[in-house]
From TrEMBL:
This is TMM17 protein. It is found in: Cell projection, Cilium membrane. One of its GO terms (cellular component) is ciliary membrane. Transmembrane component of the tectonic-like complex, a complex localized at the transition zone of primary cilia and acting as a barrier that prevents diffusion of transmembrane proteins between the cilia and plasma membranes. Required for ciliogenesis and sonic hedgehog/SHH signaling. It holds the Pfam family Transmemb_17. Belongs to the TMEM17 family. The lineage of its organism: Eukaryota, Metazoa, Chordata, Craniata, Vertebrata. It comes from the Eukaryota. Part of the tectonic-like complex (also named B9 complex). PANTHER family: GEO07735P1-RELATED-RELATED (PTHR13531), TRANSMEMBRANE PROTEIN 17 (PTHR13531:SF14).
Length: 165
């Protein structure tokens, strides 16, 4: 049995678990400081983003751990999709939107978080592809062996012909 989980992905997830609370604290502290200077719609957007990212990140990290360590394709696929769709675009929005009055510490935290997400998206894609290919090959071999066991031995009478003639 070949191990299909990815060590680089697991290391990235491990460090991300410890980095995320630091990122969250830095982002919330700077949001608190610049909140009065922001326009109303940016205030609403940033609060909504913080809630969305916080909830999604907890689910995403759990799915990444379970999918990678237990070699479960659906969980790893969910992790990959949550990385690509809500997380990466939101972090890139926080990083590149100059209307948010980005602080240098905040920019550094977003760059680190975006690099974690980018690496994890790539590593999860290749790990997921390897897992799916290996599991498909195992399924085909299992089906082949099952069909081989059901096939009658050479020279044995075929049960479909019957003995009525």
């Amino acid at each position: 049995c070949e191990i299909l989980s990815s060590l680089p992905l697991q290391m990235s997830l491990y460090f991300n678990v410890y980095f995320f609370p630091c990122w969250w604290l830095v982002t919330v502290a700077i949001l608190y400081l610049k909140y009065p200077a922001l326009s109303d719609y940016y205030k609403f957007i940033l609060v909504t983003i913080m809630i969305l990212v916080s909830l999604t990140e907890l689910i995403r990290l759990y799915l990444g751990y379970v999918g990678n360590l237990l070699e479960k394709v659906p969980e790893l696929a969910g992790f990959w999709l949550l990385t690509l769709l809500p997380q990466l675009p939101v972090i890139l929005f926080l990083l590149f939107n100059e209307g948010l009055k980005i602080h240098s510490l905040e920019r550094a935290a977003h760059i680190i978080f975006a690099s974690f997400l980018s690496f994890q998206a790539l590593a999860a894609f290749f790990t997921l592809r390897r897992m799916v290919n290996t599991l498909a090959a195992r399924f085909r071999l299992t089906e082949f062996h099952r069909l081989e066991e059901q096939r009658p031995a050479p020279g044995a009478p075929c049960p479909a012909t019957g003995s009525g003639s």
